[in-house]
């Protein structure tokens, strides 16, 4: 893949960006990664619950997407198409059993006792711990504790603000299932966090510049 600087590249619409990536333009591929790094990392982490594992899965997914992007026809949003690849890559990594990752049964129900564990697992904070950073950390921990059947749906719907239709397409499950899991996830989080969920939601699973740079560099080094 050869460098090919393009004027006003950051303003390219997704369909044109995908076409240029398929044509082998390295700058376009770099832009694609930077445009979608945050949302795709969140999707991978919602499955693996481990920062390093999520980064590895995301790099693998980008290489898979690069190999297949010539087949992208803009029938779905580029973000939806990429998310499906990332979800599959994360699930494959979970099945390989690296570190502490567990297989996520996206079309299964919660295991017995998981909902009770969630209700009992809320993290108490001191009264003076109303700072945004602490609330964000508390929310991230609580999301990690969601039953596996609900966690990824919640991340895509609430944090990434995908539509129910888009989440259903990403996870290959009925839209009605997306709705029921999303509302159940919110109910569990309310039980754990009371009125604190919305305060920190915007900053949950922050994606800093160093991680973004590391993932882009790691993928480009593997080309």
From TrEMBL:
Annotated protein name in UniProt: RNA polymerase sigma factor
Family indicated by similarity: Belongs to the sigma-70 factor family. ECF subfamily.
Classification via Pfam families: Sigma70_r2 (PF04542), Sigma70_r4_2 (PF08281)
InterPro entries: RNA_pol_sigma-70-like (IPR039425), RNA_pol_sigma-70_dom (IPR014284), RNA_pol_sigma70_r2 (IPR007627), RNA_pol_sigma70_r4_t2 (IPR013249), RNA_pol_sigma_r2 (IPR013325), RNA_pol_sigma_r3/r4-like (IPR013324), WH-like_DNA-bd_sf (IPR036388)
Entry-linked CDD domains: Sigma70_r4
UniProt KW keywords: Sigma factor, Transcription, Transcription regulation
Domain RNA polymerase sigma factor 70 region 4 type: 137-188
Keyword Transmembrane appears in the UniProt entry: no
Organism: Rugamonas fusca
Keyword Zinc: no
GO biological process: DNA-templated transcription initiation
PANTHER family: RNA POLYMERASE ECF-TYPE SIGMA FACTO (PTHR43133), RNA POLYMERASE SIGMA FACTOR (PTHR43133:SF51)
Domain RNA polymerase sigma-70 region: 32-100
Gene Ontology molecular function: DNA binding; sigma factor activity
